[in-house]
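Minimal example, chain plus zinc ion.
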Amino acid sequence: MHGFIPPDRFFPYLTWTDIQAMPDKENVVIIQPLGSIEQHGPHLPIIVDSAIAAAVLGKALSKLHPTIPAYALPPLYYGKSNEHWHFPGTITLSAQTLLAVLTEMAESIYRAGFRKLVLMNAHGGQLQVMEIAARDIHQKYEDFLIFPLFIWRVPNMAKELLTPKELEYGIHAGDGETSLLLSILPEQVKMERAVAEYPQELPQDSLLSMEGKLPFAWVTRDLTQSGVMGDATVATKEKGDRLLESLGEGWVKAIEDVYKFRQPQAWMKSEGRSGGGEKSVITRLTN
Ligand SMILES: [Zn+2]
């Protein structure tokens, strides 16, 4: 059942008594891998994002120093994928459902005594939902630290291995994801069907762009016929191995940093300075 995750790092293999007895629970890093079940072109299986999340996390946890306590929750296979709605096989949760699932999962983790939760997300279409969930949960439980992290934002080899065009426009089922899948699940990749298709009819000489500072909303079929955005034909297992290795290393550092993280508490200082006499900033704001 643990798939790519080392069994001793797989949270569901623990017993409730293991969890109750765990030391320093407030610094234990609990990681929720988040993927999707959505079209990834004619050559890749619809499980791509979930597979990448689980494989990168497994790689990181197998490299992580054994003294750092960190556990992987079971991957959340379903995500918010409604941009791929028109392609059969895509299964999507609404933003509201995903927000509710994340919130209720997080509240369960909090109730068990944990205080650090990473949302490790491999699907670009749900970043905003992660961020809203993280802020809302932290606002409600102020000693609960939530980290909404996109899997590709840790240091990795993408800049060395992919072309500038691919880095900008190859956002879906292109060289990066196809190479990774050739490394992770090679038997599920149908390279003979791989295509190169970059997003079509993008605005020229315009402030507006697909994913820049001033974006327009799109669904996938607005921009591509095959469902691919990028060049899948140049993918190789060798590139995928190096990407996976570097993402794994980047995530080791991210998990270590979450373990060491201490919550900034400027409001505590302002209460300290007022010496209890004057009203602190926070009381004034809440009164
Ligand atoms: Zn993807």
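The pocket of zinc ion is lined by residues 40, 48-49, 123, 172, 177 (CB under 6 Å). The beta strands are 29-34, 70-72, 116-121, 145-150, 196-197, 230-231.
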